[in-house]
Amino acid sequence: MKKIFLTGITGLVGSAFVVALLREREDYEIVCLARKSPVKSALQRTQEIIRDECKFDGCPELADRILKSVKVIEGDVVTMDPEAMAKDPLLQGTDIVFHCAADVNLGKDPTGKTFRINYTGTENMVKLAQLLKVKEFHYVGTAYIAGKLVGRAIEDKPVDNGFNNPYEESKYKAEMLVRNSGIPFTVYRPAIVTGRRSDGRIRKPLAFYRILEFLGKLKSHQCSKHGQNPVDWANLQINFATEPSEHVYFVPIDYVQEAITALFQRPVCNRAYHITGDSPVSTRQIENTICSVLRLDGVTVDGGEVAPTMDNKLMSRFLGDLFPYFSSDIVFDQSNVRNELGPQILDWEYGTKGQETLIRSFYLDYFPNVEWLQTLAKAPIERQPRR
Predict the structure, then answer these.
(1) pTM over 0.90
(2) 33, 136, 324, 353 - which has most CB atoms within 10 Å?
(3) What is the dotted CATH code of the domain comprising 2-194+249-275?
């Protein structure tokens, strides 16, 4: 029986990994570090998340068996004392550390919270791993440590190219801690995590989904203001103030789950893996698909001058932190993934159809009481939007 000490079990990737691994293997015991909430203990939160993930993965009947292999320590990666934690009886005999906890805040970090969680948290986990003398350290980073790079990002050669925000910088520096720890490591670097390939559904929508929510609310507000039916086409006249890109890496959560779980079970050899897929979509594709589903005209992506309207100002305020990811010109190398798992692991493509499916699924799942969104999420594409 191998013992893993894991952080981030309540997050999207952490919970997906735990369920996939324990569904496949019964020779692992997982001890996880989790925070309590104002109304739930760390144990209650963990159990609830694992049951939700099992249901999402289509195996609710396995939840009890999986939870028998999961123990919980209440705590926080930032405030924990590695020396005290190393003495916890539950951690004796730990073979592997799997560090997944992070703060995915893409905006400014005035209080330093994001940096503390991502950098100091990793620093504490590395110290703990050294004290426990573990054999392996697995770290979930981000493909966007490549920052402002233009061109190909190589998996095993991370370079400081400057960063778009404190999140990217904190994750880059945290990965350097892992690389210099003296412990054999594997680094996983996902891109923009979105809904699964089969039906577009996601258990916990992040990042990109804020755009879908914003545009839905903006259309609702405009139609209400002008007495229009929101099921009909509406002209918003707004511009995403960013240069369009041909390389936006949407990565389905089931691919992230499949790839990380498979790579985790391979020998550790101090490598990083871009968990990004190899079929990026373009900003224009994304714009066109969203507007086709929502029946929106007058939405553009253009790095030129932006009219100082209230809607444009609102969009910049609420979505501006996402703009760099839709203008990025990074191409993520896949050599290590191909060599380790074979080229067939990358034999999928999101494309326009995949984007349409995930957009519809989001509105159907997360806005069940908004009748006009439900109608459009089920309606066929009527025509192409006009810019």
Answers:
(1) yes
(2) 33
(3) 3.40.50.720
